[in-house]
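Researcher: Please translate sequence to structure tokens.
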Amino acid sequence: MQQVNVFDTGVLLVLGVLGGTLAAFAGLPMPYMLGSLAFSAAYTIFQTQRDHVVKFPRNLRFFFIATIGTMIGARFTPELLGLFPRYWPSFLALIPFVLVAYAFGYTVLRRVGRYDRATATYAALPGGLIEAITMGEREGADVRVLTVQHFARIIVVVVSVPLLFLFIGGEAVGSAAGQTMADGKAGWIDLCVIAVLAPLGLWLGRRLGLPAGQLMGPLVLCGIAHVTGLLSLHSPFWLLPLAQLVVGAGLGAQFAGASAGLLIKAFSLGVVNVAGILAIGASAAFALRNIVPGGFEPLFISFAPGGMTEMALIALSLEASPVIVTAHHLFRILLAVVVVGWVGKRQKARGAAE
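Model: Translation complete:
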């Protein structure tokens, strides 16, 4: 049973509000999540230096992740089903992309970062944070390093991709551009439906063992309900920032025990790793730009290794389907989990033979 300090939880949420508000005022991408994460991580690391372990209610964080998944699922429409067959080349291209990106990441973390084999194997995974940490812990990897390295990957992607679009196109995209999952039609009934679908989808994702199940379970459940016409759900404008703020505060608490040296090393390696993976993804998107609908930009964010919610918001900025982008990310995570499972078994068999 996770022991949670109510005072710590309250402080993390207050700091999350402060950090998210300042980040939004500064025009940063995904401000409420990243600002909240930064401030809560700073508090967590400070308390670690005082030998106090900060913990955040896991179920609270999972509930709001499920809420985000529900809001993304509400974007599914019957018309979108006709688009998926036209994207098979990009889904197929994700297979070599994951293999090359994983090999590149492993090389960086093993050769440059000098991580041990097990830690590098699971820290290099281009997706599936929870799955990577779970499998890595079972195989003897350093869980603290795994956690920080994957957070570094996600944060670097979430920050760099919107900044790339701003630098190249001159316009903000994603949450920095004011994009939201809301459509202005939400009422109390919608809130009640979300309050039911989010935990139900969370349970479903866990039962089915879906990758990123806390997000994908509600997304799939709500998406099916929308596609089949069982419901038409609308999201209030304030719910996504609130969900991101709580999730960010919860993620910041995961930095308990992380030293300044570990953070500097993880983020330095994360920048190198993400730069290489984004270059690989950009090459794939460029090659496919005239083959699948939408062109280069939606394909590029479909191959970006992290920040599923922010990538969906960037898709909205580009007038592309966030559902198509999310589907690519789900397939990428599935592939990554399969690949690392195979690699882990090979390494285990080789170790037993030696």
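Researcher: Any highlights?
Model: The chain is about 75% helix and 0% strand.
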